[in-house]
Amino acid sequence: MNTLKNILVVLVAAFGIAASAHADSGSASSSESKTFAQVGFYVTPQVGGSVVQDVNFDSVTASGTVSGQALSGTIDASLSFDAGFRFDVPVGYRVNEWFSVEFAPGVIVNPMDTASFNGSLTLGGTTYAAGTTADIDGNLVQVPLIVNFILTIPTDSKWEPFIGGGVGALYSSATFNNISNNTGTRDLSQDATSWALGYSALAGLNYHFSKDISIGFVYKFTGTGNQNYGGSTLGDLLDTNGTFTHSVQADATFRF
Q1: What distance, in Å, lies between the first and last C-alpha atoms of the chain?
Q2: Strand partners, 149
Q3: pTM for the full model?
Q4: CA distance 10 to 4
Q5: DSSP secondary structure of 96-129
Q6: In this structure, is residue 64 part of a structural domain?
Q7: Can you state the percent helix, strand and coil of the chain, rounding each to 5?
Q8: For residue 61, is it within any domain?
Q9: Residue 125: pLDDT band by 50, 70, 90 thresholds?
């Protein structure tokens, strides 16, 4: 929550700067040329950090074999993640000074941290009881393929705040290497994949060096619909109500 609060404070400050720039421009000569970006195509490489909220798996009765180890009990757990990174390359078209449409493919990578169990699960003779946690070695890779609609607020200055949102698809690939607690480490070597509905909300601020080049930052919230994983014994047992990711990125926009 503190991370999200800090992001919101930064965004409010950014919009305050833009509003101040707009007020200052009002006192300038009416003959001063506008500095908003030109209409046309653009590409915006973006790089930054990502935080994934805990993912809650649906309660499912487990059975089968994982890496030669018997699996039984109930998969009813939540999975937490460490901070990771995100890279996107939106390609879009600015229709006018207010409105743009873009296709924004990217990749989000976050290491797994711990699993918290709400039900009892046994793997290879080790029982992970309800109310306990275990360390998970693995990674979650997400590939958003989303079409965004961007509303830019013209300020007649070099500063331009913007907001937007979009919808599309999101591919997820989860790699589970091993699980460990105070009783030892168990090998998992399982991969799980999923396609789901993807959607986004975003806000940010750009500074224009010219009509063709700008730099800035953007906050993004990216979510998915229900996810039904598959691809392995463990993956076939994993279903969630969605994955929710917060990102802050620096960007550079090139127009042509």
Answers
A1: 40
A2: 101, 165
A3: 0.85
A4: 10
A5: SSSEEEEEEEEEEEEEEEEEEESS-EEETTEEE-
A6: yes
A7: 10, 65, 25
A8: yes
A9: confident
